Amino acid sequence: MPAGRPHVLKDLTVLLLMCAIGYAQVILMQNALKFDVIDQYFPWRRFAAECYHNIIIPFWNPYQHFGYAFTADPQSGAWYPFVWLCSLFGSYSVYANQLEFFIHVFIGGAGIYFLTRHFTNCRKSSLAAGAVYMLSGFFIGNAQHLTYIISGAWFPWVIYFFLKMSNRLRWSEALLFSLFLFLMTAGGYPAFTIITAYILIFLFLYKLSTVFKSRKSDLWKFFRINFFAFVMLSLLSSFVIVSLWQNVNLIAKSSALPLKVAQFNPFSPQSLISLLWPLVTTTDYSFFITDMSMANMHCGLVLFAALLFSFTQKKNKREWLLLAAGIFFLLASFGEYTPVRKWLYDFVPMMDLFRFPSIFRLFALVCFLLIGAQYLKKIFADEVLAKKFVRWVFLLMFSVSIIGLILSAMNGGTIQWKNWSANGFYDFIQKQGFFDAMMFQSILLMTMSMLMGVFILMRKNPSTILIAFVFTEMILAAQINAPKTVYSEFRTSYLDETLAELPEGFPVPENLPSKSFSDSTGFKTPFWRNLSLLRKQPGFDGYNSFRMLYYDSLADNHSLLNKVLKNPVAFNASTVSFYSGSISSTDEKNHLYFHDSLKNKIPSFQFDNSASIRFTHFSPDRMVMETQSSFPQLVTLMQHFHPYWKVSADNVPASYFISNYLMMTVPVMEGKHEITFEVKNPAGVIACWVSLISLIVVVIAAILLMAKRL
Fold first, then answer.
1. How far is CA 527 from CA 161, 517, 524, 530, in A?
2. What is the DSSP letter of 513?
3. How far is residue 373 from each of residues 51, 137, 294, 499, measured CA to CA in Å?
4. What is the pLDDT of residues 127-154, one digit of tens each?
5. What span, in angstroms and rounded, lies between the C-alpha atoms of 139 and 477?
6. Model pTM?
7. By the 8 A CB rule, do 565 and 549 touch?
């Protein structure tokens, strides 16, 4: 085994243990995750896994927003290999949900560990940085946003293998770079991928200039390696690329957002208090003017002190670049408080497509961790300097605790210890106000500073003291913040038992009025969003900002929407009218609205009160209904039109007309007929298989090449 490899395995084991302690309630499957991860990501992943298990590529979700192109939604999980693996076992459970979260947090910590070793070649500082990253304010604060967690997990690996690939020009590292960038793209939040793409462009140009100046003989191989990585990334991402390309003109968020929306939920400057007292950020929206998930950037006082003290040292070119990048990303994360985010919005392509400036704080955090770890390397190499630094950390921790206690006492902060003993720690944390939280965390910091003082007086190894207190502070910070932002009061087993009441597979729904099925009513707490997807009932709403282009046209016309929702999922038209601009609704039941351009194309029909429609098959890729009437009818299916849809009547191809802005209406003659709506997407199927086969080939090839090199 190569030198140093046993240490790497030991360090990764330590990081895994740290992760398990910091997120104990999650990995031990005691408490379920909370907020968006249960309301959004879980139902979507459950649906995708169930589709794949039934040999259905989930191009379409028929249960929400009158149906939408599911694989075009970057947050759906439809592109992500973890969901594919879950489908092999039948479904995506709440246990899989928590395991996915935990695995990715650890992956992120391991990635920072290797990236820091690449920069510092220091085992201890790398271990400290990895531990801080896993339990940082980003992962703790954004625990509910699973795609954020996935982006944060793979980003360090993307940068690490790009640098390794560019330096050593090895095919195995090019494969791993393309693999990890694909995983970040397929599973993460798109904004992180967009920002990462610009970082990679900068690094490519920087490395190109370096090769051109000092390694001209490697220039051709440098281009070949990068081109090879790009080709492999394209093959891996085929499913992603084709899904987006097919739907870019049909989805509502494919164009620029208003600046006000793009600056929503920043990492406000006042959120910098999270560097000292992270629990405070969960208490007072009016002070932080941002969501509590976006207000935490805690990285521990040891790394924070290392970052501050790094300014006393001379920096090389790489460290200056890291510092400049970190400050730039931090200013961008402030949103409207600085002009940086607006400048990016105005002048940099694709920077106007996403919300939440707080996203930029992840990149600032990584830059600052690398700078702090570089200073810690000097500390760990010099015992005299280490002793001085430990004393400064002690003084910082003690001072922060004293300031916190004074401020909280002056502003009425209290600690309700009786509430802890009576109702438990979870309820105790929920009831913390701004200064209550500051006081509680200051007491913990005071206790740690006293322990550090004892160890200093005992002349313990300063490096050991620093590592121990990095671990201790980060675990404590994670555990006291987790009840607010990571896990709920509900037991994981309770959620699993509750979900067992839901239907398996894709049952045929009753053809009832659409208003009967809402995404937010009709099931047990804590499930209260995207319920129509869980219950497999086609509905009109959904807790998802991703929508097809014409959905808002109908949803914003409240009068028309209320009339439409009184109709069953499939119904026969009673009367029709035509519009050229906006639609003025009528009180007539089963009324259809067609655009003026269809005035001479709609065939004649006669409403039949005794006519019937019933579904005989209903799945995400195929819906079959049986109709019977005494006169010709216009049969409407409440699903958003799309090029995917192919319609047939009695197995003969048929055409449909668009009604009510977005629905599909098919003319049917009198008598008994079988109408089939089927999703046909040959290009999407091919792209899915290309991605899957490429993934298998890349993983096997990377393993064989790495094994050969070892």
1. 40, 15, 6, 8
2. B
3. 45, 18, 24, 45
4. 999 999 999 999 999 999 999 999 999 9
5. 12
6. 0.96
7. no
Q: Say what the pLDDT of residue 3 is.
A: 43
> From CA 287, how far away is CA 266, in angstroms rounded?
13
Tokens of 287: 């002070």
Comparing C-alpha atoms, which of 90, 81, 85, 97 is closest to residue 33?
97
Domain ranges of the chain: 545-681
pLDDT at 444: 97
- Residues (pLDDT < 70) of the chain are 1-4, 254, 708-710
Show Cβ contacts of residue 633 under 8 Å, excluding neighbours closer than 6 positions: 572, 573, 605, 606, 607, 608, 611, 627, 667, 668, 670
- The phi, psi pair for 651, rounded to 5°, reads 70, 15
- Both tokens of 29, joined, read 């499957």
Give me 253's structure tokens: 């968020």
Question: Residue 183 has what pLDDT?
Answer: 98
pLDDT number for residue 4? 60
Report whether 281 contacts 292 (CB < 8 A): yes
Sequence-distant (≥ 6) Cβ neighbours of residue 497 within 8 angstroms: none
The CA distance from 639 to 64, in Å, is 9
Supply the pLDDT for residue 1. 38
Q: Are 447 and 453 in contact (CB under 8 A)?
A: no
| Residue found under tokens 């501050």 | 308
**Do the Cβ atoms of 517 and 538 come closer than 8 Å?**
yes
Does residue 203 contact residue 164 with C-beta atoms inside 8 Å?
no
pLDDT of 5: 72
Question: Of 539, 478, 562, whose CA–CA distance to 299 is shortest?
Answer: 478
Query: What is the phi/psi pair of residue 548, to 5°?
Result: -70, 160
Q: Which pLDDT does position 90 carry in this prediction?
A: 81
What the block records as the tokens of 405 is 């206690």
- Whether residue 95 contacts residue 103, with contact meaning beta carbons closer than 8 Å, is answered with no
CA 183 to CA 180: how far, in whole Å?
5
Q: Measured between alpha carbons, how far is 536 from 525 in angstroms, rounded to an integer?
A: 18
Write down the pLDDT at residue 2.
Answer: 44
Which single residue is written with the structure tokens 């009068």?
559
Task: Measure the CA–CA gap between 329 and 588, rounded to whole angstroms.
Answer: 56
What is the three-class DSSP state of 340?
A: helix
